[in-house]
Write a structure and sequence with these properties.
Structural class: mainly alpha
Strand content: under 5%
Helix content: over 70%
Radius of gyration: 19 Å
Number of strands: 0
Distance between the termini: 17 Å
Order of helices and strands: HHHHHH
Largest sheet: none
Length: about 170
Amino acid sequence: MRSKFWMVAVAMLALLVGGVALLSYAQDSATTTTTTQKAWHGRHGRMAYMARELNLTDAQKAQIKQIFQANKANGLPLMQQMAANKKAMLEATANGNYDQAKIQQIANQQAQLMSQLIVQKQAIRHQIYTQVLTPDQRTKAEELRANQISRIDSRMQKLSQAGENSSTQQ
C-alpha cells in the first residue's frame, strides 16, 4: 500500500512539473530566434535533452513549436483552473483550518484537471512522434523511453526497500 502511495506521489509530482512547463511555454508568445533557442535550451531542460538526443533539425523544432501553439488554447484554461484550485486550497487551509469535505472537493477537482492534462500531453506526444520524428528518431525515442522506465523502476524499488526498512525499525 505504501509503495502505491509513493508511485502516485511521484506521478503527481511529474505531472505538476510537466504542467508548469506547459504553462510557461504556453505563455511565451514571442517567436524570435533567441526566444525559440531559450525555449529549447533554457527553461525546458527535458525538451532540450530530447531535442539533443534525437538530433532534431531546426525544421522539426519549428514543427513541434507549431504543435504546441496549436494545442495552447486547450491547455491554458486547464492550467488556469489548476491555479485557481491551488488558490482555493490555500484559502481553505489558511490559519490552520481543516475542512475535510472542502479539501476533498478541491482535491477531486484537481485530480480531474490533471487527468485532462495527462491526456492532452500524451496526445501532443503522439502527434510529435507520428508527424515529426523520422523512423530512426522513433527508435531512439523508444530507447530513451525504455531507459526512463528502467530508472523509474529502480527508484520505485529503492522507495519500497526504504519503506520496508522503516516499517521494520518501528
